[in-house]
Write a structure and sequence with these properties.
With 477 residues, this protein is mainly beta.
Length: 477
């Protein structure tokens, strides 16, 4: 018997054109009185453009969502990110820029020209963050778009990273009040680059690593002393991007004979150590990294290969997805001996990881939070105890959660003293809600019901109020 799209995960891959503002959402349960601020997220919300449909989940036009919490009540607003990419699609009914796996079909001349005079998409569909006092929507292209956290109005590009590709997962250095990120410069002499960004005009390159065939890199690790690049063997010939005649990600090739490699960079001197070799892997997300007894501990979400990218094409997601397994995997690097060991932390699926960032990022930690499941799509929130190798979970029938964002309780002593926030699709109701869980035991505290469904998205942050300015729960600054 077939399942209606209104009652299963597929509703999360349908577009949402409604832009609305609601002063008070219906709330079930009780939101902790100390929780105050805005839960901001970005994600794809339009897949059909008129004359062209996008092919991949990562390619939908970005929409911002804001859940603002105060005195136990929740306000909501959503708005398309009014980027150049959005405006081009509005005007022409098709993509104006190459996205992750959908191409606007330039001529060969246009492709070669774009390699040397690139025209990047600014469709900030992956994550939101803050640089100095500006809020930005991020993707893997080097054009972070500034937006107003109250009105969700877009205000142009903030700055340009030192490369053609970057990550949407910057780390934050509270001492220097900088964001640390990673970029890839493509060309006849390609290189990996770690860089620091303060204000718009405050950028410095920490280290540059030459590379002939750059790997696909979505995130990286950082400790108090080191930056860690986990390089899987999913690589590209830069000239293929210019003249290959295929969308961006389809130019990459899986070459497992290369194995995996970890490059370790001293944050102060820029000195590069390694590479330290491992079995081949593919990853989107790092969980955490820290130093212990002269060793470097690097935890990430590891796939056996990059088949997950193919699994996320929309025609597959709107059918019956076959998602490959993903494990929280620990790599232990002995920097002196040059040895690397690896093991899985738990035997269940674990993706979209979050931790108590402000107190535990780059330091020893015990708990990580993510999503997993055994259904056609992720259907549970998972709390992973990395010390015990055990996990607990929250789930509800017909509900499909996004990543769980940890918000610490003021003056809470325990690592898991706080709440988890997630935007959950309630497929039976055809709408979504902001879920509030007690991070200690995953007990459900509250649901704030949005007036429509929120298409499945990737990442977001909770920005509280401290000393009259926004402060991110994931930002120790």
């Amino acid at each position: 018997m077939s399942v209606s799209i209104e009652t299963d995960h597929r509703l999360g891959f349908t577009g949402q054109d409604n832009e609305t503002t609601v002063d008070a959402l219906p709330v079930e349960g009780a939101i902790p009185p100390w929780l105050a601020g805005s839960f901001l997220r970005t994600g794809p919300a339009r897949f059909e453009l008129g004359e062209q449909d996008v092919r991949h989940w990562f390619d939908g036009l970005a929409m911002l969502h804001r859940f603002t919490v105060a005195d136990g009540e929740v306000a909501y607003a959503n708005r398309f990110l009014h980027s150049r990419a959005w405006r081009a699609a509005q005007e022409t009914g098709k993509l104006g820029f190459q996205e992750f796996a959908t191409d606007p079909c330039r001529s060969l001349f246009g492709r070669v020209s774009s390699m040397f005079r690139p025209s990047f998409s600014d469709n900030g569909v992956v994550n939101v963050s803050r640089y100095a006092d500006e809020f930005v929507a991020l993707s893997e292209t080097p054009l972070p778009v500034v937006f107003d956290p109250e009105t969700l109005e877009s205000a142009g590009v903030a700055y340009r990273p030192p490369g053609h590709l970057t990550t949407a997962h910057p780390h934050h250095d509270p001492a220097r009040r900088e964001a640390i990120n990673f970029a890839v410069k493509l060309g006849p002499r390609s290189s990996y680059r770690f860089y620091a960004q303060g204000g718009r005009d405050e950028q410095r390159v920490i280290a540059s690593i030459p590379v002939r065939h750059p790997a696909y890199v979505h995130s990286f690790g950082m400790t108090e002393r080191w930056l860690i690049l986990a390089e899987g063997p999913f690589v590209v010939d830069p000239m293929r991007l210019a003249a290959g005649g295929r969308p961006y990600i389809e130019n990459y090739r899986w070459e497992p004979e290369r194995g995996g490699r970890f490059h370790v960079v001293d944050r102060e001197t820029g000195a590069v150590h390694g590479p330290y070799e491992s079995e081949p892997f593919f990853t989107f997300h790092h969980v955490n990294a820290y130093e212990a007894d002269g060793r470097l501990i690097v935890d990430l979400c590891a796939y056996d290969d990059p088949s997950v990218i193919d699994a996320l094409y929309l025609d597959r997601l709107r059918g019956t997805p076959a998602l490959p397994g993903v494990r929280a995997r620990r790599y232990t690097i002995d920097l002196e001996a040059g040895r690397l060991d690896e093991r899985d932390l738990w035997d269940g699926d674990f993706e979209l990881p979050r931790i108590a960032y402000r107190t535990r990022n780059g330091r020893p930690y015990r708990f990580a939070y993510g999503v997993g499941g055994e259904a056609a799509w992720t259907d549970r929130i998972v709390k992973l105890d990395v010390e015990a190798g055990a996990a607990s979970h929250w789930e509800a029938e017909g509900c499909f959660p996004s990543e769980p964002v940890f918000v610490p309780e003021p003056d809470g002593d325990a690592e898991d003293a706080g709440v988890l926030l997630s935007v959950v699709l309630d497929a039976a109701r055809g709408t979504s809600f902001m879920l509030v869980l007690d991070a200690r035991d995953l007990g459900e505290l509250a649901r704030a019901h949005a007036p429509h469904h929120v298409p499945f998205s990737f990442h977001g942050q909770f920005f509280g109020e401290r000393a009259g300015r926004h402060t991110a729960a994931g930002d120790p600054a």
